[in-house]
Amino acid sequence: MSKIGSLGARLHRGEVGYDFVKNRKIWYGISILITITAILGLAVRGLNMGIEFQGGAVFTTPKHMSTSVSQAETYAVEASGHDAIVQKLGDGSLRIQIAGIDTGKSDEIKDTLSKDLKVNAEQINADLVGPSWGKQIANKAWEGLAIFMVLVVIYLAIAFEWRMALAALVALIHDITITTGIYALVGFEVTPGTVIGLLTILGYSLYDTVVVFDSLKEQTKDITKQTRWTYSDIANLSINGTLMRSINTTVVALLPVAGLLFIGGGVLGAGMLNDISLSLFVGLAAGAYSSIFIATPLVADLKEREPQMKALRKRVLAKRAQAEAQGEPVADRAGASFDEETADAAPAVVGPREQGASRSRGRGRPSGKRR
């Protein structure tokens, strides 16, 4: 653990680092490949929308049912004539979900299920959701997501600049697409809990992104007044300086979510935990990836197209070529904090410096006794 802490400190000081911005085309290619896979999953399989969005009924049986999930699904399909989703909950009860049925049909299905499952009809709890109400919930979910995106872009454009707002928006769309694509491929049910999970992971993704953007904004205030670093160099320094913080917060957040997904959802069979935990698990991982490998490199790409940054890059590269020709050390990466007063100075020495005793100590003092 001490080695990890030491690595984090060295990353923050710029003693070590990885050139994320230089290899940005690799990360863009990986993201495009994953995004295309997610879109294909959505197009081929589609989302398994819960009854909250399309209407239907949910039947919950008494505890400790001996009927298997597959057998209960067969009973539900025969009784309703529709596809059914059956889950066995932790207390042994069965949750039978059937979409696209009305109130009259649900009473008939309930009676048929009670006979097939050999339980009293009064012991089966039935919850109904109308199709119009489900459609309204779906529309509200999309409206909430759109409003969230607009507010985020406006805030980032004001607090930072439009390029950072655009990069953050691309990263958010990237995270949402991957998460919904995983839902389509896995076949998990989309419920209001899923929407809550999506909004939660967007907040986590923005947190990591804003931390890097804040560091980048602070270190590039007077970047054109020096000839040591390009904008991409400073962007790379900002990523490395906040890398361990992003990794630590993501791992700490993923551990309890993994417990919900694999233990709560997988072992105990809690349906609602599956809905929330899968979106959180996939979204947190995708958000950490996008904030490091997508958002900041994209900002660097956009900024490097500005005339001022193009001119700065030419000056920096010319100075480095001159230093290399003269055999002087060349600063080829963002390995130290940028400061206007020391930007053109020699590379900073990290750590305490040893200073010898001055030989001229005492010179210039008047001789003789002091009064």
From TrEMBL:
Compositional bias ranges of the Basic residues kind: 360-371
Annotated stretches, region: Disordered: 321-371
UniProt domain Protein export membrane protein SecD/SecF C-terminal: residue ranges: 112-304
Membrane topology designation: Multi-pass membrane protein
Record-annotated membrane-spanning stretches: 26-44, 141-160, 251-272, 278-300
Compartments, as annotated in UniProt: Cell membrane
Superkingdom per UniProt: Bacteria
Keywords of this entry: Cell membrane, Membrane, Protein transport, Translocation, Transmembrane, Transmembrane helix, Transport
Family, as annotated: Belongs to the SecD/SecF family. SecF subfamily.
Subunit-structure text: Forms a complex with SecD. Part of the essential Sec protein translocation apparatus which comprises SecA, SecYEG and auxiliary proteins SecDF. Other proteins may also be involved.
HAMAP family named among the record's database cross-references: SecF_B
NCBIfam families: 2A0604s01, transloc_SecF
Protein's job: Part of the Sec protein translocase complex. Interacts with the SecYEG preprotein conducting channel. SecDF uses the proton motive force (PMF) to complete protein translocation after the ATP-dependent function of SecA.
Name of the protein: Protein-export membrane protein SecF
Species name: Streptomyces similanensis
Taxonomy of the source species: Bacteria, Bacillati, Actinomycetota, Actinomycetes, Kitasatosporales
